[in-house]
């Protein structure tokens, strides 16, 4: 049996920063219509099926879950186990999101952008429901299931800016606090769902057990990757990659680029997801570069310090956001469902990004983690809809950025969601009139 190639192009600084190439042909017609700006056709999914799946608790996803099947290439049986693990989680996650969208006010769900997202989730669930009736036990089913996973990743690739613009258009009909609560839950759940799908696709592509002993497909050396996880990730390498990308943006906009100095322990390694760290560091460096240049301090270097955390303790790694079971009195950004800690000690890494950009004003500082578009006025919203990426007057999302989220105030909140997904955190210390220190703490898996 020949395996049909499945090409998944993730956002990567070191490869390509666009999700899909114009000439790439892949996926169903629904996927293609989503890529080209139309929502998938409305698919009928029985409400009882959605309610049944949504009633099941969300699994607390950890890095240990993602590496449990071992290093590729995987045997056929292990690959089937990975597929069935993904199948046991993703339909439940999709059903929870469909239910949450249904619970929004009708006038909000009726918005074309929000409705488009709803139809996308229903379509994805409909493609997985046929597999709910059986386990994946042969290569043909596994190949078809991986095809469905790739379709899901493609279809949902552009959902965040669509969702953001939908809520921007509906800001008069829904409380900003409710928008923030919904987006926190939705975006964090989306990170986990995509990660489950991408992990199985990556394991599939690096295993392909049907090829047997064909020497052409034997790995010449042991890779540090287990799917999308790099078990020997050097944060210093990611910092340099992000610096190169952000420097180009900065020079294009301002005509100058500050330098970045890395100190501390740049050779330290941990097990983590490179694309997640890329996103977070890109957002933090964008802010540091912008503040440095706009304050006239472009000759002052941005200092990045990398150090192991001294208190490497077991930690709870669930980031399936749950507002209903959270202790009362916590802010919406702190309401997480607790999960069992990992059984081994988790070494941590702290990355400090220090700039001399004048700091963050006391008026702006409390709002740097908010989805700032909820405070837009009518004129600002019209400017944004006309392509003015400077409509948001906060430190998040520098104008001139090629990101489709530029100007929507999503950069820092989403960056924090990525950082916190496996027990990390981001903290900001601002010295107004001088500069800003940002502390990014990461948790890994220990020695693999």
Overall description:
The chain is an alpha+beta fold and 448 residues long. Helix content is 42%, strand content 10%. The chain contains 13 helices and 8 strands. It has a 5-stranded mixed β-sheet. Strands 1-2-4 form a 3-stranded antiparallel β-sheet. A hairpin with a 2-residue loop joins β1 (225-226) and β2 (229-233). α2 packs across α4 (76-102).
In short:
By secondary structure, this protein is an alpha+beta fold. Helix content is 42%, strand content 10%.
- What structural class should be given to the helix and strand makeup? alpha+beta
Could you tell me the number of beta strands?
8
C-alpha termini separation: 33 Å
Largest sheet: 5 strands, mixed
Q: DSSP strand (E) fraction?
A: 5-15%
Task: Give me the side-by-side strand order of the main sheet.
Answer: 3-5-6-8-7
- The whole-angstrom Rg is 22 Å
Mean pLDDT: 76
Q: Which spans of ≥5 residues are poorly predicted at pLDDT below 50?
A: 1-12, 15-42, 213-218, 312-346, 384-407
């Amino acid at each position: 049996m020949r395996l049909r190639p499945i090409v998944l192009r993730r956002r990567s600084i070191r490869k390509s920063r666009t999700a899909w190439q114009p000439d790439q042909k892949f996926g169903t017609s629904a996927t293609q219509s989503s890529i080209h700006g139309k929502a998938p056709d409305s698919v009928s999914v029985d409400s009882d099926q959605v309610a049944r799946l949504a009633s099941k608790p969300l699994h607390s996803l950890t890095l240990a879950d993602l590496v449990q099947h071992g290093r590729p290439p995987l045997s056929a049986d292990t690959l089937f186990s990975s597929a069935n693990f993904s199948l046991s989680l993703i339909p439940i996650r999709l059903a929870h999101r469909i239910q949450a969208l249904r619970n929004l006010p009708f006038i909000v769900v009726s918005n074309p952008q929000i409705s488009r997202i709803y139809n996308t989730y229903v379509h994805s669930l409909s493609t997985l429901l046929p597999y709910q009736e059986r386990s994946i036990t042969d290569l043909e089913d596994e190949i078809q299931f991986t095809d469905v996973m790739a379709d899901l990743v493609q279809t949902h690739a552009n959902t965040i800016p669509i969702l953001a613009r939908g809520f921007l258009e509906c800001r008069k009909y829904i409380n900003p606090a409710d928008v923030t609560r919904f987006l926190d839950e939705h975006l964090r759940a989306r990170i986990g769902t995509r990660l489950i799908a991408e992990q199985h696709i990556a394991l599939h592509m690096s295993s392909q057990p049907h090829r047997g002993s064909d020497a052409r497909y034997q790995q010449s050396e042991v890779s540090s990757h287990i799917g999308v996880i790099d078990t020997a990730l050097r944060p210093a390498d990611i910092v340099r990659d992000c610096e190169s990308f952000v420097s180009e943006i900065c020079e294009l906009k301002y005509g100058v680029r500050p330098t970045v100095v890395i100190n501390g322990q740049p050779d330290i390694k941990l097990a983590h997801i490179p694309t997640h760290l890329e996103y977070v560091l890109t957002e933090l460096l964008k802010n540091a570069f912008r503040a440095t240049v706009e304050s006239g301090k472009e000759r002052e270097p941005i200092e990045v310090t990398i150090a192991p955390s001294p208190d490497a303790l077991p930690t709870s790694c669930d980031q399936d956001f749950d507002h209903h079971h959270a202790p009362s009195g916590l802010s919406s950004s702190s309401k997480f469902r607790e999960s069992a800690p990992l059984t081994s000690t988790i070494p941590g890494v702290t990355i400090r990004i220090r700039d001399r950009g004048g700091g963050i004003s006391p008026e702006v500082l409390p709002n740097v983690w908010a989805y700032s578009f909820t405070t837009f006025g009518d004129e600002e919203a019209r400017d944004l809809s006309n392509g003015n990426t400077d409509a948001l007057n906060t430190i998040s999302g520098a104008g001139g950025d090629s990101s489709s989220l530029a100007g929507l105030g999503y950069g820092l909140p989403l960056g924090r969601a990525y950082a916190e997904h496996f027990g990390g955190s981001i903290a900001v210390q601002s010295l107004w009139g001088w500069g800003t220190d940002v502390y990014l703490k990461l948790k890994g898996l220990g020695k693999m």
